[in-house]
Design goal:
Keywords: Signal. By secondary structure, this protein is α/β, with parallel strands linked by helices. It is built from 20 helices and 24 strands.
């Protein structure tokens, strides 16, 4: 239907009417053939024409829904290239301390959660960041002052440390002498030798593994709330990462006809021997998704796409693996969480089973080790392998990304969130110019996909795009743009948050841009963005989100 305009003609009007037309807008299509437009038409859940308002109005009849955009900006549906929705449901249903600077407010929110939640339920969530104002890590005594009789377990903004109360330590049987996994640490008081209530990296598992499992119903309800939250910030697709078991929570939403998000799913795995089992999970998921009939009306929704592994920690807690010593910790470079040989074996097993591999590597030594492992272990596949975060890199390794065909998956707010806080202290002035090098990656023709790593930074794509374009502290720290030579343009950032994410999946030709023949995923902002885009983007919000031409969110 609507074949004339769908084929690119703007002079011929087709006979059939569209289900929905959107007119009078500032449409940023991310389609190189037609980068800007005024309007588009949707039929059967797909874009069938893109053009001027006059052209598109001619495709309507009395049954067509007409969306007058009033000059507002429309983009393709955003695709988050790195998030943890299934792991972050606690932030939606529990306690969210993100971007709150003071401990007094943290404790107030924790107390409110204690009063709201049923007896015995653990208080979870987090997002606390002691570097914003407090300057020192909180303690178990801080939480004990407001909640004593139920466990409180709150992850920090980096998702690599947890803050707990005494009750949680007791349930976990944690003492200063407890054994922890490689890279983990139980922080102890220098005077008493007792645990302070801060557990780094894998040490947190001593407590989180004791947490009672949610029921299937509880998990489904929490995930549905989180998916709706994602829609509210304009997301129509995510690359989500968690345990292989969690993909079945998404599958339930598909089968209940409640999934309004396209999910390219990555499962955490460090052992090559476990990969074949994940391949069987993929077959099961694909079969049940197809049987649901949902893809016929909504397009691609869910598959088990890739394996996720981790080689180091984060800069903030000195657990990222560096080539040279930390500038503020003599004799310490960090340590890898696994060997290069084990990582290479995992990559080979994953690739041989049709799974690309995503590897968390933040320090320059971690990135280099990961590239070495890809060089030895990767095999050609349909979809590219990738490195996650890449917060600091040895410059020669940028060219290796291109040579090896590796995607750089990066999170803009991770950069701006460090400005004036700890990045210079950790790596010094000379090395900081090698941090968060988005522009250098693009200049070397390395595919770059942007994401949030929620809940470690804001889920909002508009926030992330703003940070990519302006590289300024969201807290007013620092002295204006930080290493602006690494900033990207708005169009580059928009591509990295839409089509780039689609290109890493089987759905590259079905989603990612406002193009005829693709599923009609789009976002309406609350105003028109200026040309060129300026800092007013910080004030913009999502007015409506559509998936396959159906409204899944509208601001009240």
């Amino acid at each position: 239907m609507l074949a004339a305009l769908a084929a690119g003609s703007s002079s011929t009007v087709a006979n059939a009417a569209a289900d929905l037309i959107a007119v009078n807008g500032d449409v940023r299509t991310v389609d190189p053939n037609t980068p800007r437009a005024e309007a588009f038409a949707v039929e059967g859940g797909k874009f069938v024409a893109v053009g001027t308002s006059a052209e598109i109005r001619s495709l309507a009849d009395g049954k067509t829904t007409v969306l007058d955009l009033g000059g507002k900006t429309v983009t393709p549906g955003f695709i988050d290239g790195h998030t943890h929705l299934t792991s972050g449901t606690d932030y939606v249903t529990g306690v969210d301390l993100s971007y709150i600077p003071d401990k007094e407010t943290w404790l107030k929110k924790i107390k409110e959660a204690d009063e709201r939640l049923p007896p015995g339920v653990w208080i979870t969530g987090g997002g606390w960041d002691y570097t914003l104002k407090e300057g020192e890590l909180p303690t178990k005594e801080d939480i004990d002052a407001v909640v004593k009789d139920r466990p409180v377990v709150l992850r920090d903004i980096d998702f690599h440390s947890i803050w707990v109360n005494t009750k949680a330590l007791e349930i976990g049987g944690v003492t200063a002498k407890s054994e922890v996994p490689a890279g983990g640490e139980i922080v102890v008081d220098a005077k008493t030798g007792d645990p302070t209530g801060i557990l780094l990296e894998g040490a947190g598992d001593l407590i989180t593994n004791k947490k009672p499992a949610y029921s299937d119903k509880e998990r489904a309800e929490a995930l549905l709330q989180t998916v709706k939250f994602a829609n509210s910030v304009g997301l129509t697709g995510v690359h989500d990462m968690s345990s292989i078991a969690a993909v079945y929570d998404y599958l339930k939403l598909v089968e209940d006809k409640n999934l309004s998000l396209r999910v390219w799913y990555g499962f955490f795995e460090d052992k090559a021997a476990n990969i074949p089992a994940a391949a069987k999970d993929r077959e099961t998921v694909d079969s049940r998704v197809a049987a649901s009939g949902e893809t016929m009306v909504k397009g691609p929704l869910l598959t088990v796409g890739y394996a996720k592994s981790v080689v180091d920690g984060v800069l903030s807690t000195h657990t990222a693996y560096l080539l040279e010593n930390y500038s503020d910790r003599t004799g310490w470079k960090g340590e890898p969480f696994q060997s290069e040989a084990d990582l290479s074996a995992l990559i080979k097993a994953a690739n041989d089973n049709g799974f690309p591999t995503a590897v968390h590597a933040i320090g320059d030594a971690g990135v280099q080790m990961t590239l070495n492992a890809f060089e030895k272990g990767q095999s050609p596949g349909k979809y590219p392998n990738r490195v996650e975060h890449i917060e600091i890199i040895s410059p020669p390794d940028i060219e290796r990304f291109k040579k090896l065909g590796i995607v750089a998956s990066m999170q803009p707010n991770h950069a701006t969130g460090t400005i004036g806080k700890y990045i210079t202290e950790r790596v010094g002035h000379e090395r900081e110019s090698h941090a968060y090098v988005w522009k250098s990656m693009l200049q070397h023709k390395v595919p770059v996909v942007f994401g949030s790593d929620w809940a470690t930074s804001p889920l909002s794509p508009l926030t992330q795009i703003n940070d990519a374009v302006f590289r300024e502290s969201p807290f007013g720290l620092g002295d204006g743009p930080w290493h602006p030579e690494q900033a990207v343009t708005f169009d580059e950032a928009l591509f990295a948050y839409t089509q780039a994410g689609a290109n890493m999946t089987p759905w590259a030709n079905e989603i990612g841009s406002i193009s005829t023949g693709k599923w009609a995923d789009f976002v309406v902002l609350d105003a028109k963005l200026p040309d060129p885009v300026d800092r007013s983007i910080r004030k913009r919000h999502v007015e409506a989100t559509y998936v396959a031409g159906t409204e899944v969110y509208r601001a009240k």
